[in-house]
């Protein structure tokens, strides 16, 4: 499957709080950020942790403004996220 | 030990419990005799902050290497005879470069991901809940606690190693080091500098 | 259902403590735990995500009270029991 996103794309992270292992940190859920790079292709950690078969998919470095994550701060945080955690963010919606 | 004793609250010293599990696994063929000692030797002979320092020093003296390092670190570090393949499988290394107005700092908020195969074990503070919780939220305050006061104009980027890649910071070459050769430059680089909690 | 390991952005943790001249391991057993884990991962007894998952499932009170490599050892024994390699009683030496 081709990658869904590329550097420069705006994305929004999921809000689901799964009952199992995941690599989408709570602080980075439900926020918009920008893809800065593709960081390889890997099986989904959520599936591997449960002993499920998993095919490689894209993993991205996504940059967030601290203000969007925490409501304060002038820094940026880049989080490495599996494609499954991301949806396109067509337009900026301020929370 | 009583039958009602909960194994998870075992009061035997942990060293004894580790030895016991090791012996049990050897007895049942899940570990080869001597396998654990071999792995301990391999760990000790594996990564070291000196590898990171050598990479940084080369990047300071060789702009071509610096460019290759930032574009594809795994291939570039091969020029120094180094590799990210020392663990279970080769991991991608991403090197982020500090600049005059830009500072990077690395964390793993979910566990403690770190380029162990290249740099050896991470420091205890890197694995602490205090560092993992705070640095994404208030990096300036955290860096100040480490004695690193950055100008308000410096943009800070925190890299959360939340998935598969491992991260290393390329610090700025200190002023007044024009006369130093690569080996002397490498001696300036600290493990904290490679994580981003020190300037170098 | 967020787990106790997911501490990024949480407030209330104290100042960061640096240990001067910190050794790689503070006791032999810590190196043994790391080596044991590496051997079991190589053998495919479990994978790295299962190992992380086992750490995350440690009850919060115990997670926060345990040292780093105590958490590792606990996760290893949890997985050995769950994979049927040995019973919890056998692992505890009962």
From TrEMBL, chain A:
Domain Nitrile hydratase beta subunit residues, every copy: 2-88
InterPro entries, A to Z: CN_hydtase_beta_dom_C, Elect_transpt_acc-like_dom_sf
Source taxon at top rank: Bacteria
Chain positions covered by the region annotation Disordered: 1-22
Biased amino acid composition, Basic and acidic residues: 1-12
Name of the protein in question: Nitrile hydratase
Originating species: Actinomycetospora cinnamomea
From TrEMBL, chain B:
Transmembrane intervals: none
GO MF terms, alphabetically ordered: catalytic activity; transition metal ion binding
SUPFAM superfamilies registered for this protein in UniProt: Nitrile hydratase alpha chain
Nitrile hydratase alpha/Thiocyanate hydrolase gamma domain sequence ranges: 14-198
Alphabetical list of Gene3D superfamilies matching this protein: Nitrile hydratase alpha /Thiocyanate hydrolase gamma (3.90.330.10)
Keywords attached to this entry: Metal-binding
Protein name from the UniProt record: Nitrile hydratase
Source lineage: Bacteria, Bacillati, Actinomycetota, Actinomycetes, Pseudonocardiales
TrEMBL record, chain C:
Domain of life assignment: Bacteria
Segments forming domain Nitrile hydratase beta subunit-like N-terminal: 1-92
Pfam families named among the record's database cross-references: NHase_beta_N
SUPFAM superfamilies: Electron transport accessory proteins (SSF50090)
Signal peptide, first to last residue: none
Name under which the protein is recorded: Nitrile hydratase
Source species of the chain: Actinomycetospora cinnamomea
Organism taxonomic ancestry: Bacteria, Bacillati, Actinomycetota, Actinomycetes, Pseudonocardiales
């Amino acid at each position: 499957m081709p990658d869904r996103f590329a550097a420069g794309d705006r994305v929004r992270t999921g809000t689901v709080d799964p009952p199992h292992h995941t690599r989408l940190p709570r602080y980075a859920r439900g926020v918009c950020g920008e893809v800065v790079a593709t960081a390889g292709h890997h099986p989904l950690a959520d599936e591997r942790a449960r002993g499920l078969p998993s095919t490689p998919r894209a993993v991205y470095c996504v940059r967030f403004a601290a203000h969007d994550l925490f409501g304060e701060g002038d820094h940026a945080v880049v989080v490495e996220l599996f494609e499954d955690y991301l949806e396109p963010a067509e337009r900026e919606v301020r929370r | 030990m009583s039958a009602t004793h909960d194994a998870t609250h075992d009061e035997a010293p942990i060293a004894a419990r580790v030895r016991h599990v090791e012996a049990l696994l050897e007895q049942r063929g899940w570990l080869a005799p001597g396998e654990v000692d071999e792995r301990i030797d391999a760990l000790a002979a594996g990564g070291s902050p000196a590898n990171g320092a050598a990479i940084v020093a080369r990047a300071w003296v060789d702009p071509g290497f610096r460019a290759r390092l930032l574009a594809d670190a795994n291939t570039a570090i091969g020029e120094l005879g180094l590799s990210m393949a020392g663990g279970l499988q080769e991991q991608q290394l991403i090197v982020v470069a500090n600049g005059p107005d830009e500072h990077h700092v690395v964390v793993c908020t979910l566990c403690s991901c770190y380029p162990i195969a290249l740099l050896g074990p991470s420091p205890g503070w890197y694995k602490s809940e205090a560092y993992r919780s705070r640095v994404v939220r208030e990096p300036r305050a955290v860096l100040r606690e480490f004695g690193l006061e950055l100008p308000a104009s410096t943009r800070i980027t925190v890299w959360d190693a939340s998935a598969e890649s491992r991260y290393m910071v390329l610090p700025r070459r200190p002023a007044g080091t024009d006369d130093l050769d690569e080996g002397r430059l490498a001696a300036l680089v600290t493990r904290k500098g490679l994580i981003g909690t020190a300037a170098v | 259902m967020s787990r106790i390991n997911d501490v990024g952005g949480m407030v209330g943790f104290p100042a960061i403590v640096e240990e001067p001249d910190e050794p790689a391991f503070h006791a032999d057993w810590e190196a043994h735990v790391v080596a044991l884990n590496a051997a079991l991962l190589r053998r495919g007894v479990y994978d790295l995500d299962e190992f992380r998952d086992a750490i995350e499932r440690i009850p919060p009170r115990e997670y926060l009270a345990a040292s780093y490599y105590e958490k590792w050892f606990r996760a290893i024994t949890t997985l050995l029991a769950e994979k049927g390699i040995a019973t919890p009683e056998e692992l505890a030496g009962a």
